[in-house]
Amino acid sequence: MINKIYLDNAATTKVDETVAEKVKEFFVKNYGNASSQHSIGLKAREELERAREEIAKFIGANTSEIVFTSGGTESNNLALRGLASSNPNKKHIITSVIEHPSVLETCKTLEKQGYDVDYIGVDSEGIVDVEEIKKKICNNTLVVSIMHVNNEVGTIQPIEEIGQVCKKAGVYFHSDAVQGFTKIVLDLKNVDLLSVSGHKIHAPKGIGFLYVKKGTKIEPILTGGGQEGGLRSGTENVPGIIGVAVALKVKIDKKKIKRRRDKMIRDLLKIPRTKINGSMKNRVYNNISVSFYGIEGESLMMMLDEENIYVSTGSACASTKLKENYVLKALGIEELYIHGSLRLTLDDISEKEADFVIKKIGEKVKKLREISPFKINLEEENGKDN
Fold it and tell me: For 87, 154, 157, 236, which has the most beta carbons within 10 A of its beta carbon?
C-alpha cells in the first residue's frame, strides 16, 4: 500500500528529525531569552551566536551580515523598505514580473509612495533579460531585486551576471533566495542582500534571515529593543535559529531526486496535450511545473488528495489571494494550459511512489477531460506544446 506522498516541498518541508530534536531542547531545556543577562539567557545567546557563525560560514559571510527575521516575506520587506528608508534620494526600483508576492506587493506599496518601479518581463522559459535590466538602470536606481529560483516553475535566474551589472552601475542588488538556498551554490560576491526562509530547508516555520553585506545603507522596519544589530527588534527565535543551523547539515541526495524528477517528466509528457513549464536546463532539481490542456488544476489537485498525493496548483503564498497565475501568464502560456497546472516539488521519493503518482495523474486527467466542456484534440503532438 502506498503511504502519503508529499510533493509540495516548495510550499514547506517536513522538519528533519535531527532538527526537531535539537529545536525541542531549546523549547524545554535551554529556553532562556537571549537578551537576558543571567546565566540561562547568556547560554541562549551563546548558542544563538554559534548558530549565526555556522550560517555565516555556510554562505561565505561575516556574522555581522546575518540578520535573523521571521522568514522570507519579512526578509524581502526589510531589504526593500529598509533600503528605501535609508536612501531617500533614490526613487527607482527594478524587479521582475514573476517575483514572489512579498516583493511585488512591497514594490506596489512603494509606488504609492512616489517610487518608480520597472517590472522586467521574462522569456518563455521564465528567465529575465540581463541586458534589459542593464538598460533600465539609471542614476536614480536604488535596487535591483531578482529572485534566485522561481517558486512556481523552478527557473534559475542568472544571479551572478545580474550582480556584476549592478556592482558596475553602483546600485544595490537583492535576491530572494528562498527557493534556491542549499539547493544551488550561490556566489555572494556581487549580492548585497539575500533573503532566506528556514521552513524550505527542513527547519521550522517562522524563522529566516537576511544577508546584508557590510556597508549597505539600510534601516529597520521593526523598532523596539534593538536586537540583530538594531536591524530587527524583537525577542530572537532561538529554537528556530538553532534549527536553521542544524538544517544546513541535513544530507539531501540531489542527484537521485533529479533523476527521479526527470523520469517523472518523461512519463508525464506521455499524457496527450501536456506541457512542462519553465526551463529544462536552468531549473532547480526538484521542481516539476506541468500543465494539462483543458482541465482545472484545482479539481486535479483535490482528486489526487483523495489518493494521498499532495501537490499544489501554484505558490502557497499566492493561492489564497491571487486568482490568476501571473507567473505562467508571464511565460506566455495559453489560458487553457494555465488553468490545468500543477506544481510538484520533490524531496525523497521512491520509484514505486513516483510511478504511482504518474499513474494516478494520468487516470485523473483522463477522467476530467471526459467531463470537460472544451473540445480537446488529443491527437496534437506534445512536442508542439513544449
Answer: 154
Average pLDDT over residues 59-87: 98
Torsion of CA 98, 157, 10, 181, to 10 degrees: -130
Q: Are 101 and 240 within one domain?
A: yes
The dihedrals phi and psi of 57, each to the nearest 5 degrees, come to -65, -40
What residues contact 281, with CB distance under 8 A and at least 6 apart?
none
Q: What span, in angstroms and rounded, lies between the C-alpha atoms of 93 and 267?
A: 42
Contacts of 205 (CB under 8 A, 6+ apart): 12, 71, 198, 199
Residues 279, 209, single domain; the answer is no
Is residue 385 situated within a structural domain? no
Query: Which amino acids are annotated catalytic?
Result: 317
Phi and psi at residue 375, to the nearest 5°: -80, 115
pLDDT at 320: 43
CB atoms within 10 A of CB 234: 16
Give the chain's domain count. 2
Q: Do 327 and 223 belong to one domain? A: no
Domain end marker among 247, 281, 302? 247
pLDDT tens track for 22-31: 999 999 999 9
Instruction: Provide the grid cell at 148.
Output: 534566485
- Print the domain residue range for 295: 5-13+253-372
Say if strands 208-212 and 193-197 run parallel, antiparallel, or are unpaired: antiparallel
Contact, 313 vs 104, CB < 8 A? no
Q: How far is CA 342 from CA 284, 290, 302, 310, in A?
A: 16, 5, 11, 11
- Of 247, 277, 294, the residue at which a domain comes to its end is 247
* CATH number, residue 333: 3.90.1150.10
Query: pTM higher than 0.85, yes or no?
Result: yes
pLDDT in tens, 335-346: 999 999 999 999
Same domain, 311 and 275: yes
Q: List 289's β-bridge partners, or say none.
A: 343
Separation CA 328–CA 282 (nearest Å): 16
Choose among 196, 183, 184: nearest CA to 74: 196
Residues 6+ apart with CB under 8 A from 344: 7, 8, 264, 287, 288, 290, 311, 357
pLDDT at 90 over 50: yes
